[in-house]
Fold this sequence. Notes:
The structure is a homodimer.
Chain A: H1 8-19, E1 27-29, E2 36-39, E3 43-52, H2 64-82, E4 85-95, H3 101-118, E5 121-129, E6 134-142, E7 157-161, H4 166-175, H5 187-194, H6 200-208, E8 214-217, H7 222-233, E9 236-240, H8 248-253, H9 258-263, E10 270-274, H10 279-285, E11 291-298, E12 303-306, E13 312-314
Parallel strand pairs in A: 4-5, 9-12
Antiparallel strand pairs in A: 1-2, 3-6, 4-6, 7-10, 7-11, 8-10, 9-11, 12-13
Amino acid sequence: xxxxxxxxxxxxxxxxxxxxxxxxxxxxxxxxxxxxxxxxxxxxxxxxxxxxxxxxxxxxxxxxxxxxxxxxxxxxxxxxxxxxxxxxxxxxxxxxxxxxxxxxxxxxxxxxxxxxxxxxxxxxxxxxxxxxxxxxxxxxxxxxxxxxxxxxxxxxxxxxxxxxxxxxxxxxxxxxxxxxxxxxxxxxxxxxxxxxxxxxxxxxxxxxxxxxxxxxxxxxxxxxxxxxxxxxxxxxxxxxxxxxxxxxxxxxxxxxxxxxxxxxxxxxxxxxxxxxxxxxxxxxxxxxxxxxxxxxxxxxxxxxxxxxxxxxxxxxxxxxxxxxx
Amino acid sequence: xxxxxxxxxxxxxxxxxxxxxxxxxxxxxxxxxxxxxxxxxxxxxxxxxxxxxxxxxxxxxxxxxxxxxxxxxxxxxxxxxxxxxxxxxxxxxxxxxxxxxxxxxxxxxxxxxxxxxxxxxxxxxxxxxxxxxxxxxxxxxxxxxxxxxxxxxxxxxxxxxxxxxxxxxxxxxxxxxxxxxxxxxxxxxxxxxxxxxxxxxxxxxxxxxxxxxxxxxxxxxxxxxxxxxxxxxxxxxxxxxxxxxxxxxxxxxxxxxxxxxxxxxxxxxxxxxxxxxxxxxxxxxxxxxxxxxxxxxxxxxxxxxxxxxxxxxxxxxxxxxxxxx
Lengths: 325, 325
């Protein structure tokens, strides 16, 4: 069964049935009217992400269920980076008429899994035809205290959650045709790219406890995202290369994993800065969350890499590899 | 100058410079962070629309400035249909690398015109590459009282603002190659399709004064949109065909304009129902707004057209003509 056999009305009815939620008290009017009406927090966080076929994902390589999860989760990662709590989502979907109903059904399943997990209610959206799949998700949330990119100060410690470079390695595996993990070694790398997890709990804690002075999620790669923090805060930084957290899977994948960790994008880990006086309080969190200090914020505007011998070199900005067609 | 010569960062900087607004007090954090943070009303209205090249518009036929306006205004029309007041917008834009910078610049100009006019602040967005242009706009607003589709009752009068069918005629003109008006006769029809105006003031008044019992904007065509009201309200309707408001331009364009007015989409007029006891209060608004009573809500679920001789026939649902490729 393909979409063209269903018609737009049936598709919208299905979206509503499978994904629409009016059950929560804060949703006064859910999907199916001209607009949704929700009870809103005073401080509303809004973010939006596009996923375009052949640029941000390849249909043949991305299982639709995981794509559904990722299309919401990349937005939740932005909410996490503000220290917010997600509440409502809106889904815009443009699909070719030839799209298989089974594909869409699996996409919905994944989207629903991610929204249930984060307690996000889908309240609206739009549907259109297109030659290539285009997914546009907007998420709103609350943030009584929020963490911008612009408040890092010289002397702050630079931290990152999780490990870096796995998603970029996963993307390379996919591009080289090694889709399925041969044994356990590669599957975490594929998962990092295909099915990233937003760091909502950590982000929200860092904001509520006022532990992070500046924060961003690593979506364009550590180098670019650290540059964003430095530019917005008008500071520089020194990153100790030997402290960059690398997974065992990444080390097994590559003899030279550092470039992937520095420039590979889509890690969706949190990169944040912490005032020296707050470091002891932060360390208590490290029992529950994997966080690593990777450097310090400096005065000026230079972003330097420090190698194991203590030599300093400018950290080169290199864009990460998308799919290209 | 084409986008590929600029790079994504420069494009985002330009979007921020040309469209971003942090100036208003309710915007605590505007474009340029992971997410925007705004002061929100208690009752938040959210709506989202996609415009896809070759399906919803043709690049060669739609001046980019007017497309920029339309991409916001179709969302504002949804806010109007809830009786809301728009506040903030988020813009997702996927563009081919070959896109001319001049095109994008004109698009931004139109978007800014529409947002200034409605006092909407662009607070965020995303940018990606694509083979065809894809525009995704999400708008939030406030609505202390809002009007759903679901509260029409038998006996209510059915009203529509403005006149119907002009946009469908404009689309036909464009498709047949008559892009520029030869004289004054066709230009309002082209304008209706290329540059529709949202009925924000009327929608908001109807909600605040509790004059409308149910409301929708006419985007899929009168027949389909009236069907939405009837289905959601579990009622029927009778529409008097001779009362459908038709513009002089439409009458000059076609000897048989009624099908265009009944099934043509994208009018972006307001279709609403009014309790009989509220009609005298509503009439006072007709000095400021063009509104026309076109029928009554009935018990049951049949939607009937009544001709000049009083004969009743079921109103046929026909989808309106998109661009197709």
